[in-house]
Amino acid sequence: MIEVQQLTKSFDGKVVLSDVNTIFEDGMTNLIIGQSGAGKTVLMKTLVGLLEPTSGKVLYDGRNFVTMSKKEKIQMRREMGMIFQSAALFDSLSVLENVMFPLDMFSTMTLRERVRRAQECLARVNLVDTDHLYPGEISGGMQKRVAIARAIVMNPKYLFCDEPNSGLDPKTSIVIDELLSSITKEFNTTTIINTHDMNSVVGIGENIVFIADGKKEWQGNKDEVVNTDNQKLNELVFASSLLKRAYHK
Fold it and tell me: What digits encode the pLDDT tens for the residues 103-132?
């Protein structure tokens, strides 16, 4: 579980996040949503330590990440997995080598053990027999699945996903959503997804945090989000009336 307490972040006196309080639960797909510029990306970057908060706490199972020493934060990050918007694979490394990279950097496994673990993760994301291929030789959806395999190879307790469906067609986006949801359940991971994809919201949004103008405007689940009377949230979620009709079919 990750608990955010009175989190505030300012840049040159401009408040971007203001007194945010929320909890991201274990074994759930926790989504952060909001308009562009609302502060959701700043929130995620603060959670993983890429930005220092102006004030407030970020508690990882009771451990305050904000006040940890540099050494403690490095150790803490070994419990985190990251999936970036662009997949961020190394073009010069094969699929297998990309997935093995965190193991090469941080584990004490033998080469045989690292290969076996990487192959297990590739199989988990349905990418068997792709070991020898390079990122430029596979589709965007496959690249995202490689990125997921790399993110889970160290058995993280916390999984952060920044716009995992960006640039993907709707069918492939559903595949990625279902994969992230099933992995979250299987490993009881605290999964946090920063997304603009409202189909993801009504598909896998078990715990949804809506950020507007730097504040937590609303929190609930995918069933509650379609029946909310919060005007700002309605404007975001039902920008397309087709989405609401599809959800109620």
Answer: 999 899 999 999 999 999 999 999 999 999
- Scored b (16 or more CB within 10 A) or e, 32-55 reads bbbeeebbbbbbbbbbbbebebee
Q: How far apart are CA 179 and CA 188, in angstroms?
A: 14
Phi/psi of residue 67, nearest 5 degrees? -95, 5
**CA nearest 35: which of 212, 241, 220?**
212
Beta partners for residue 159, in sequence order: 81, 191
CA distance 189 to 80: 10
Closest to 56 (Cα-Cα) out of 4, 12, 15, 11? 4
Closest CA relative to residue 39, chosen from 70, 59, 16 = 16
